[in-house]
Amino acid sequence: MDSRASPVPTHCATAAEFRRLGLDPDDAEGLFRRAAASRLPDALLGDIVSRLPVKDAARTAALSRRWRGVWRSAPLVLVDADLFPATSSVSSVLATHPGPISCAHLTSSYTVEFHDLLPCWLQLLADKGIRDLVLVNRRWPLDSALPATFLGMATLTCLYLGLWKFPSTVGLPRKTCFPNLRELELCNVIMGSRDLDFILDRSPVLEMLSIHGNLVKFRLRLVSQSIRKVALTGSFVEEIFVVDAPCLDLLIHSEVWILGGSCSKIKIGHAPRLNYLGLLHPRNHVLEFSNTIIKARTRVSPSTMVPSVTFLAMHVRFGVRNDLKMMPSFLRCFPNVEDLHIWVKPPDTSFGIHLHHHHSMKTDRSAGKLNLKFWHESGTIECIQSHIKRLHFHDFRGGQSELAFLKFFFESALVLEEAVIHLDAGFTSLEEIDSKLEILGSMKRASKASLVVATGCSGPQGGYTRSFKRGSDFSVRDPFAHYSDAPVCTCKTPLEICILCLKIPSSSGSAIMIS
User: Strand pairing of 237-244 and 257-258?
Assistant: First the structure.
């Protein structure tokens, strides 16, 4: 009998009961063999059946009289890939099982009849109390309108939509809502601000929102007493306005899509628990607090600060004057940052994806003489001097502007505990690296923090899709670290510079290890 890991995790109490009986709750096939030969409680039998592919789960009714009603009485877990290529079997399963439906993943349908069958499937799912729904359109056109039937799924707790056009919400009755929806993830879903507002307004307990690849310009307006995590990746966001979100803990906006020379505005109103913010781009983002737009040399005040932020991530073109001139102002808005991530970008990139490449070259002038003197003249930066404990400097190239910032940083950071400098993948020789390490090692530091140098490109391998998936993992302490593939140092060496697994390809294709 085939087996697989269930898309629905075992409830902790059920898992504990399996362990008490000496069983591995993650071994579906082993559990089934034990269940078939013993008298496990009915509740555990139902949990075991839900881990099996739906065809095998339904067939358990033929094992014995005791098994006859187990599949029908257990919450249904339906993954259409288990029925592929017989997609029409989905209709039979949904009609036969009385519900409730714990989880349905409809992601593998390429057949012509898929769009014709989908409204009926969605109605059956709604009638039988679907909780977790993953719905991906695999058949052209990829912008097919999603049947409005799903708007009546009041039992949904988790919803993932991929490659759809969102149905129009104009004229829908006020009673239309998602009273139990806690997680919403939209990937390449065509929808405007009105539709997004509709979903957010009708989801009173929504906690997590992820949007990826939305190319229709929209504004995100957050007024929610429940929302905790928001991640926007590869999307055309004109404005993010956090009006009133008292529980908001994380806000990530990365891989920005912008039109020509325009920017994406981030306005922070009431968000007293906002702890994680990124990835800010001096070129692509405009910050606004209390009706004040943050510019170079803006004098900060309590009304233009977000003191709750302790994790901050930025992309910076150190070779571009205007980017550097904005950095002190950006950093001063977040006086209590303890973990700072900075990704270095070359001068000819704009972080996001421009739909038209005609923005003025005057805004991208070389950094020129913005050296250490510039940083000293910019004055004290509270977060650097008194709060930052960990610095992750990604894609270090060793340019003069990078070195000037790092020198200022190390001279100013009184409470720094760890600095991790991730080398750019462009280094090709030991001599080149040695020269950069010598400069870094000679820098005076205000704290006794060790300097850790890691190797390789620290950007997300696999492009922004993988970056999105990593950045949407809200269970980790530092989600910005998931945008990096660099290893984590566990070395306790007292040396001034700890070189972590520094690998340089040799002519033979092997690697030279330096420690």
Answer: unpaired
Share of the chain above pLDDT 90, in %: 39
Side chain identity at 192, as an amino acid letter?
G
Amino acid letter for position 326: M
Axis crossing angle, helix 430-442 with helix 400-412, rounded to the nearest 10? 30
Element (H, E) at 197: helix 193-201
Please enumerate in sequence order all residues whose Cβ is within 8 A of that of 86, keeping only pairs 6 or more positions apart, or say none.
Answer: none
Residue 350 burial (10 A CB sphere; 0-12, 13-18, 19+): buried
Decide which of 361 and 326 is more confident: 326
List of residues 6+ apart from 480 with CB closer than 8 A: 276, 278, 279, 311, 313, 339, 341, 392, 471
Residue 103 C-beta-side C-alpha neighbours within 13 Å: 18
Q: How far apart are CA 189 and CA 196, in angstroms?
A: 11
- What pLDDT is attached to residue 432? 86
The CA distance from 108 to 119, in Å, is 16
Q: What is the DSSP letter of 416?
A: -
Whether the CA torsion 198, 200, 201, 206 is positive or negative: it is positive
Instruction: Give the whole-angstrom CA distance, residue 185 versus residue 204.
Output: 16
What type of residue sits at position 57? A
Return the number of other C-beta atoms located less than 10 Å from residue 33's C-beta.
Answer: 12
* Burial (CB count within 10 angstroms: exposed 0-12, middle 13-18, buried 19+), residue 506: exposed
Q: Using CA atoms in the order 369, 375, 379, 385, what is the torsion angle rounded to 10 degrees?
A: 180
Q: Give the rounded percent of residues in the chain with a pLDDT score beyond 70.
A: 74
Residue 249 CA to residue 262 CA, distance in Å, equals 27
- Tell me what the pLDDT averaged over the chain comes to: 78
Question: Residue type for 67, please?
Answer: W
Question: Could you tell me which residues come within 8 angstroms of residue 212 by beta carbon, excluding any fewer than 6 positions away?
Answer: 185, 186, 187, 188, 232, 233, 234, 235, 465, 468
Select the more confidently predicted residue: 104 or 48: 104
Q: Is 338 exposed, middle or buried (0-12, 13-18, 19+ CB in 10 A)?
A: middle
Q: How far is residue 152 from each of residues 98, 174, 199, measured CA to CA in Å?
A: 19, 12, 12
CB-CB neighbours of 426 under 10 Å: 11
CB atoms within 10 A of CB 47: 25
Confidence check: pLDDT of 8 > 70: no
Torsion, Cα 442 444 448 454, to 10 degrees, reads -40
Band (pLDDT 50/70/90 cuts) for residue 515 is: very low
Measured in residues, the chain has a length of: 515
In b/e form, how buried is each residue of 286-302, taking b as 16+ CB within 10 angstroms? bbbbeeeebebebebee
User: Could you tell me which residue, 45 or 447, shows the higher pLDDT?
Assistant: 447
Nearest-CA neighbor of 104 among 71, 134, 81, 75? 134
